[in-house]
Design brief:
- The chain is an alpha/beta fold.
- It has a single domain, classed as Rossmann fold.
- Helices cover about 60% and strands about 15% of the residues.
- A five-stranded parallel sheet has the order 2-3-1-4-5, sandwiched between helices.
- It is globular, with a radius of gyration of 16 Å.
Length: about 190
């Protein structure tokens, strides 16, 4: 299975992606995790990415696309993967389509986790306090949500037109959201 998990920052994509990937034995590719690791390690990519992340902006497509291309070429992606945080723009969809076409594969499913904006802000402010995440101030969170609406939301209509998109409510506890996703991925069980 090759799939994409979409949704605004704080929707629970990472948590649900971990659960799905563990149960399906596929690679979890999180651009956010990769960016944060590079920031922590002080790599050139991390320094560049941090400038954008601290401002609540997305890292430029060129940097992100190259990183994803390299990751998809790794052996653990051969049997399937879940992309978490990519693609975020129509241009990235085109780049992803090209990457996968070159490998002779395509995306099987796209799940969009939907959550109320005020709930997202509450979740991310709490996470910032719990984890000391400097990139999750309320101002930055609200800007990230604006950028999401401007750049990422149009992807839902594109993937819906391809018959790949299913929306799942991210409200409630983790187990409830997981159960909803399992129904989407295994409709006959």
């Amino acid at each position: 299975m090759r799939m994409i998990m979409m949704g605004p920052p704080g929707a629970g994509k990472g948590t649900q992606a971990d659960i799905v990937c563990s149960s399906m034995l596929i690679a979890h590719i999180s651009t956010g995790d990769i960016f944060r690791a590079n920031v922590t390690q002080g790599t050139a990519l991390g320094i560049e990415a941090k400038r954008y992340m601290d401002a609540g902006e997305y890292v430029p497509d060129g940097v992100t696309n190259a990183m994803v291309r390299d990751r998809l070429a790794q052996s653990d992606c051969a049997t399937g993967f879940l992309l978490d945080g990519y693609p975020r723009t129509i241009e990235q969809v085109g780049e992803l389509d090209s990457m996968l076409s070159a490998q002779g594969v395509s995306i099987d499913a796209v799940i969009e986790i939907t959550v109320d904006v005020d709930e997202i802000v509450q979740r991310l402010v709490k996470r910032a306090a719990d984890q000391g995440r400097a990139d999750d101030t309320e101002e930055v969170i609200r800007r990230r949500l604006e950028v999401f609406a401007e750049q990422t939301a149009p992807l839902t209509s594109l993937y819906a037109s391809r018959g790949l998109l299913t929306q799942v409510s991210g409200m409630g506890d983790i187990a409830d959201v997981t159960a909803r996703i399992r129904v989407v991925l295994n409709p006959d069980s």
